[in-house]
Amino acid sequence: MSGIQPQPGIMDIDLYVGGTSTVEGVKDVTKLSSNENPLGCSDVVKDAHAKTGLNLHRYPSTEHEELRAAIGEVHGLDPARIICGVGSDEVLQFITHAYAGVGDEIVYPQHGFSMYPILANMVGATPVVAVERERVVDVDAILAACTEKTKIVFVANPANPTGTMIGGNDMARLADGLPEGCILVHDGAYTEYVQGFDGGAGLVEARSNVVMTRTFSKIYGLGGLRVGWGYASQEIIDVLNRVRQPFNLSPIQTALAEAAVRDQEWVTKCRAENARLRSWLAEALMEIGVPSDTSCTNFILARFADQAEAEACDDYLKSQGLIVRRVTGYGLPNCLRITVGDEPSCRRVAHAIGQFKGGAR
Ligand code: PMP
C-alpha cells in the first residue's frame, strides 16, 4: 500500500451510473432517461455552430462577457451578477466549494436531485435530508432540519425527479427562515417548462441569501454542450468567481449558448410541444393504471404498486429498447422517471407499459 488516502467523505461518493443510450442486443433504442429535449436545439444554434470559425489556438475569454450580456438582456438581469459554468452542475459546485466544508451541513429535500449529496460529500460536509409531503418539497421540514451548521439549502423548483413545484411564497418563506449565513440555492433547471415563471430571479433580487441556477441542458436542447449559469448578489458572485477555473468554458460553448438564449421562439415552441405530449403521456399511463403527479417539467414520475413491479416494468421496457430511469436512489423505489420524448417515443413507451400491465411480459 502506498499510504495515499483521499480526503474524508470522498469514498462516500457513489460513482455515477446512468446516461447510457444502448441496450445490449437491441438495435432500435429510445432513450427517455435523461430529460433531454427530443426536438434538439434550434436551427439558430446549428447555424452558429457552422459559422464558428473559431481561433482554437487562443484561450477563451475568462469572463464570458458576451454570453452574460445576452442572458442579462433576454432575462432582464444584471450581467455583472451572472456566473457561467460547465452545466449548472458546475455552478452548484462553485457554491458548495465556496460556502461549505468539513463540519458543515447541507440540507435538501428527501427526493432532491442526486448531485446534492455528491457535492456535500465532495467538500466533506454532512448531507441532511428533509422529508417531503407526498413527493412535494416541504418548507417546514427543511426549516426544521436546519441548524447553525447549515450553510447551504438546495431546492430544485420544479423538482427532479418528482416533477412537482412549490409556490414563490413558499420559497420566500424558506429564504426568510434560514439560519444566519445560510444560502438558499433555487435550482431552476426546469424553469422554462413553466410558462411565465422567472425561476427565482425575483427572489434573488429581493433576498441577499438566494442564488438561482439555470441550464442550457433542458429546454434549449443542449445537454451535450454543458453550459449553465447562476444569478446572485454581487457579493456572492465575486466569491464564486474565485473558485471558478478561469478558462472553464470554451469559445464553442459560449458562442452556442449565446445563440440559444437569443432564440426564445424555440423555447416557446418546445414548451408548448412538451406540455401537449406530457398531458397525453400522463393520461395514457393513468388509463392503464399507472398514476403520476402533475408534472411541471419534461418528465413524468410514473408510480407502480411497489419496487418489484417498477423494476419488472423497467426490465420489460429495456427488452423493448426503451431506456427510462429507475429512481430508487432518490428514495422512490416504486417509481420510474420517464422523459417526455417526441410523439412516437411517447406512444411507444405508453404502448409498452400497457403491454407490461396487461401481462404481455
Ligand atoms: N439540477 C437539476 C434539478 C437537474 O435535474 C439537473 C440535470 N439533471 C441539473 C441541475 C444539472 O444540469 P446541467 O449540469 O446539465 O446544467
UniProtKB/TrEMBL annotation:
Keywords: Amino-acid biosynthesis, Aminotransferase, Histidine biosynthesis, Pyridoxal phosphate, Transferase. Its cofactor is pyridoxal 5'-phosphate. It comes from the Bacteria. The modification N6-(pyridoxal phosphate)lysine is found at K218. GO terms for molecular function: histidinol-phosphate transaminase activity; pyridoxal phosphate binding. It catalyses: L-histidinol phosphate + 2-oxoglutarate = 3-(imidazol-4-yl)-2-oxopropyl phosphate + L-glutamate. Its EC number is 2.6.1.9. Homodimer. This is Histidinol-phosphate aminotransferase. It comes from Shimia marina. The gene is hisC2_1.
